[in-house]
Amino acid sequence: MRITLINTSDRGGGAANIALTLHKKYLNLDHKSRLIVAKKATILPTVYQIPKTGWERFWDDIDRRLLKSHVKGAYRLHNLISVIKSPIEAVAHKTGRESYHHPEAENLVKEFTSKSDVFHLHNLHYDYFDLRLLPNLSKQKPVLITMHDEYLYTGLCASTLGCERWRTGCGNCPQLENYPSYKRDNTHNNWRRKKNVFSESNVTLVTPSNWLAKRTQESFLSHLPLKVIPNGIDLSVFNPGSKVSARNKLSLSQETFVLLSTIKSGRPGKYKDREMLDRVINQLRSMKLSKRITFVILGCRATRDESNGCFRLVEKPYLESQKKMAEYFRASDLYVHTADAETFGLTVCEAMACGAPVISTNAGGIPELVNDGETGYTVPIGNHQKMVAHIIDLMDDDERLEKMGQRASEITRTYYGIERMVDDYVQLYKELICKHEI
User: Fold this and answer.
1) What's the mean pLDDT when you consider all of the chain?
2) Least CB-packed of 158, 326, 364, 374 within 10 Å?
3) pLDDT tens digits for 331-356?
4) Phi/psi of residue 371, each to 5°?
């Protein structure tokens, strides 16, 4: 098959990892696959970055020279150039109206339309894709969209965080500062424009969890066909191994109880709730503990390592190496997840595959991964006291902790491998292509 995938980037978050993984797997299966992205980070020749216009390249060159010159007022001129370079996007951000004007993306999609049997779209935000292409594109070729978040049925939000305005048309948005953020509230008009686009589009939707599928079916997207395909992880990387060996490699004591968490630094908004994580840490730090605790947090802005009595806090920057991530999961006694929003939970799945029980908030699709009392526990969003209580309870029960870890790994290896995900998508492509040809 000739498969064209589209996503914001080819490296970074969960959507990028899934899109790139599928692309590579399709190539290995001898499909003719290409991945179109707004920001390219890999060097794969089959990944195509949406080019900038000649106007943008001209002003980018001036901007680079300006910033290198260190002329007085250069930063103010830099801000002015960013407006001149992309005036439509600048106005969009000022007014809160999402910009669908992306001619270079449109040209690239048109170029590959005749060369593709199916289009598989992933994240369509942030300012790189024209949703108005969907009605015509879906008439020419089968189109499916994997919803990695809630963006498609809201007026702005990637995650609604409990807000229900998306059901009735958005407006008066309580979280404009969250990703993807805008200066003013134009969410009702954005919601209405999306609704009109999808009312004229014949696309198939895919969600990674039943939770997101249910919400999608309660939105203005309810008329579109929908299938649940859980995300898959690389089980050749994320699998159980020696805890002793992993701790030796990571310079973690064999005598301490290791907790692990990951965060997303640099992104505005809640989503991965660092505030709740800090409350968990502060409560543990203030308690009289039966064991020494080492709490490792990955994804921080800088390295930090401090001890306070029986409590040690280790913070490290984001790790790109999946093999290194797997070592941290194997070295851990528990994986702690404090997300406010989560459509699936890739890191939760990876931790479980490596044999780490999980204590997480019950955000989004997490309860579909973490079975209470069997592979870990889920707690209400924001309830750090209950999370700490489960940590303390399991810290003193080695036998239950080991059984939970074994069961977590068994379930993950049975249901959440990459091969299963790839097979599900390939089968769906074939079905859509057949229907489209009739």
Assistant:
1) 93
2) 374
3) 999 999 999 999 999 999 999 999 99
4) -90, 115
